[in-house]
Every structure is written in structure tokens, then in C-alpha cells.
TrEMBL record:
InterPro entries: WD40/YVTN_repeat-like_dom_sf, WD40_repeat_dom_sf, WD40_rpt. It comes from Macrolepiota fuliginosa MF-IS2. This is Uncharacterized protein.
Amino acid sequence: MLAYTLEKDFTLGGQVQCLSFLPGGRYLAIGIDGQVCVWDTTSWVLDLQYHRNGVLICSLTWDLHGQLFFGCSDGLLTIVTFGEKEYCSKGFCTSQQPIKFIAINPSGNFRLALGEDSEVTIWSFQGVHSLLYHGAL
């Protein structure tokens, strides 16, 4: 028989737009209105609050290296790399439309598909190793 146990219940001060677990489950990222919140699931401590004023966080996902990708209503894609008690973020504008969907090719060649209202765009990264944090999460 399948059994369910509630592990954590969040009361958040906004509307949840999207959420995603890091592969392996260590972190949970939630897009809430104009911010991304990342919790460490081993302790449920809030590790990161990243604010984007005046825009919605529409989509987010993790890659296999532990980088968090999130898309906003203004077409900006942001990539957050986590280090020891710090993080680095880089972003670029992909469209004037909201980024509603993000898919990362798991083959390791760093291709990214972004979905808007009426189009899908495919991006490949040059110099991606400068974004990667080479350490344990």
C-alpha cells in the first residue's frame, strides 16, 4: 500500500509560478512573483532569494551541473551558479516575450530550448565553463 507523509508546508507571500528540484533532490527552487527562492531540502533553510523587480518568474529548471536557469516575463534568461555561501548570476535577453518553458539538453553539449507564446528558440553556449562552478553542491 502506498503511504503519504507531509514533510514540509510553505506559506509564501506571493503566487507560485513554477518550481523545480535539483536533480538528486538537494535543492528546491520556487518562482514566486518576481523572485526565486531556493531551499536546501536537507534542513529546509532558505539558501537564496533572488529578486527581479517588476517582472514575473515564469519558468525555471536545473542543469546536471547544479546551475539554476530561470526565465522571466520580460524575456530575460538568468543562470545562477552556486558556490560555497555565494552565488554568481549571468543573464541575457532572449526575446520580448515571457519565457514560459525551459528545457536543457542533458547530453552535455549545453543546448537550451526556450518557449514563448508562439515560438521556440534553441540556444547553444560558448564559453560555458566560465559559468560552471566546479565543486560539490
